[in-house]
TrEMBL record:
This is 2Fe-2S ferredoxin. Pfam families: Rieske. It comes from Rhodococcus aetherivorans. Signal peptide: none annotated. Keywords: 2Fe-2S, Iron, Iron-sulfur, Metal-binding.
Amino acid sequence: MEFKRVARSGQVPEGIVRRFYAGDYEFAISRLDGKAYATSNYCSHLDCLLSSGKLVQDGIGCSCHGSAFDLATGEPICPPATEPIRTYPVEERGGEIFVGIDPAEPPEGPRRRRLRQA
C-alpha cells in the first residue's frame, strides 16, 4: 500500500465533499465528525460524480438519483444504488491528506470509460 498526498487538510472542511486526484486515481474526499474519508468518485448506480453530492446520514450522497454510501465501508445505505463503491484508507499528517492506494488495484472510473477502453 502506497500513501499518496491528495490535498491539504484545510481544503476539505467539515461536511464538505471535494474531488481530488493522485496520478490516474480520482477520489471523493470528505470530512465528517473531524475525520477525512476517501471513496471512489463515481456512484455505482449510474456513474454520477459523488464529489457533486453532499454528506447525508453518515454517508456520501449522490446528487443524481439520491443514492448514498457508507463512508467507511462503501456499502449503499440508500437506493437506488445496490452495489458498493470503493473506499480507501486515509492518513492526515502535517496538515495534509494522504490516501492509501494498492498498486495492484487499477484506478476506478466510470463504467462508460472502462467499456470504451476495452
